[in-house]
UniProtKB/TrEMBL annotation:
It comes from the Bacteria. Mg(2+) 1 binds at E70, D90, L92, D217. The gene is cysQ. NCBIfam families: bisphos_cysQ. This is 3'(2'),5'-bisphosphate nucleotidase CysQ. The keyword Disulfide bond does not apply. One of its GO terms (molecular function) is magnesium ion binding.
């Protein structure tokens, strides 16, 4: 019977922080060297520099898991379809925010096992805040200070549900309609994986998304939300899965509480 991999989450946190410090060097010098990919999404020299740090440092650890990164090689599904465990990395999530001088960008490192994330690290370089989770629980740490355990409630305040949304993608009318049916009273736009962090720490209750993003955008955040006690479900109300033939995510919803049965 397969055994879940056992990793040193603190080592992964250290790698995320190291990559984040490199991002800050570019950010503070305003030395971004922006290019555009075939899909017209931006990529900067900072993305590549952070990716080099993360992949290089992970390869030094005593793990043989393959790495799938936004800024890495394009790995066909035929090669990765049998991967049981792998790293899923976004070295700079929120490149648009980064380019605009908006502080809400992150480093995301997730570990996927049998199609589902089991550990994750999200680092906010400007604020020096870490969110991370593994088999020992989910935590927040500010500037290397005391660990704050993240533990979400079973049920939210149904009369005052708070949602977060992407700051760079306009909500479609049908997305607003879903939130209206859920009785959401407040919607906060925010960039990058900060949305998942807000759900995991309880400062927001729902993150619903129809517009596509990528697997490396969501894996670390899903791990942190789920281990905090929340849920991430697909359009069929099943746990959101990874390593699909297409790495483009479909519709999903994140709940910052354990029992979503009264809403779905």
């Amino acid at each position: 019977m397969p055994v879940k991999p056992n990793i040193n989450i603190q080592a992964i946190c250290s790698i995320a922080v190291q990559a984040g410090k490199k991002l800050l060097e570019f950010y503070r010098k305003n030395d971004l060297q922006v290019q555009y990919k075939e899909d017209n999404s931006p990529v900067s020299a900072a993305d590549y520099a952070a990716n080099k740090i993360i992949t290089g440092e992970i390869e030094k650890l005593a793990y043989s898991f393959p790495i799938l990164s936004e800024e890495g090689a394009d790995i066909p599904y035929e090669v990765r379809k049998d991967w049981e465990t792998f790293w899923l990395i976004d070295p700079l999530d929120g490149t648009k925010e980064f380019i605009k001088g908006n502080d809400n960008f992150t480093v995301n490192i997730g570990l996927v096992y049998q199609s589902f994330p089991i550990a994750g690290v999200i680092y906010l370089p400007v604020n020096d805040v870490l969110y991370f989770a593994d088999k020992n629980g989910a935590f927040k740490q500010i500037a290397s200070g005391e660990l704050i355990r993240l533990q979400l409630p079973q049920e939210p305040d149904y009369q005052n549900l708070r949602a977060v949304k992407s700051s760079s993608n306009a909500y479609r009318p049908e997305e607003y309609e879903v939130l209206k049916k859920l009785n959401v009273k407040q919607i906060t736009p925010i960039g990058s994986a900060v949305k998942y962090c807000m759900i995991a720490e309880g400062s927001a209750d729902i993150y619903y998304r129809q517009s596509p993003n990528m697997e490396w955008d969501s894996a670390a955040g899903q791990a942190i939300i789920e281990i905090s006690g929340g849920k991430v479900l697909d359009a069929n109300k099943q746990r959101f899965a990874y390593n699909k033939p297409s790495l483009i995510n479909g519709e999903f919803i994140c709940y910052g509480f354990g029992d979503s049965s009264k809403l779905i």
